[in-house]
Amino acid sequence: MRLVAICREVDPETGKVAVYQVCEEMNDGTVSFLQNWARNNPGFRYFTLASARWERFGEVIASILKRRTVTAADVDRIGGIVEL
C-alpha cells in the first residue's frame, strides 16, 4: 500500500483554505519534516492516507478539509485519514 501526504493550508491574510497533495511517496524523513513544519507553521496541517483512497475520494475529502474549521472529530468521520 502506498501512502500520500495531503496539506491543508490556510492563508493568514485572506483566510482562504487550500487542500492539495504534497508528495506521492511517504517515508520516515517525510513524516518528520511535515510534522515539524506543521508545528512551526500553524497555517499548515498535514494528513496521510492510502493513495487509492485519495484517488477515489479525493474531491470529497478535500471539500471536508476546506471548511473554515476542521476538528479532530471531523477528520475521524472521514475515515482512513490520519493527521500527522
Point out poorly predicted stretches. none
Beginning-to-end CA distance, first to last residue: 18 Å
Order of helices and strands: EEHEHHE
Principal-axis shape equals globular
How confident is the prediction overall: mean pLDDT? Answer: 90
Q: Give the biggest beta sheet.
A: 4 strands, antiparallel
User: So how many helices?
Assistant: 3
What's the gyration radius in Å? 12 Å
Biggest sheet strand line-up: 2-1-3-4
Helix content: 40-55%
Task: Report the portion of residues in β strands.
Answer: 25-35%
Total count of strands: 4
Structural class: alpha+beta
Would you write up a description of this structure?
The chain has a four-stranded antiparallel beta sheet with strand order 2-1-3-4, with helices on both faces. The radius of gyration is 12 Å and the shape is globular. Helices cover 42% and strands 30% of the residues. The chain is α+β, with helices and mostly antiparallel strands and 84 residues long. The longest helix is centred in the C-terminal third of the chain and has 15 residues. The mean pLDDT is 90.
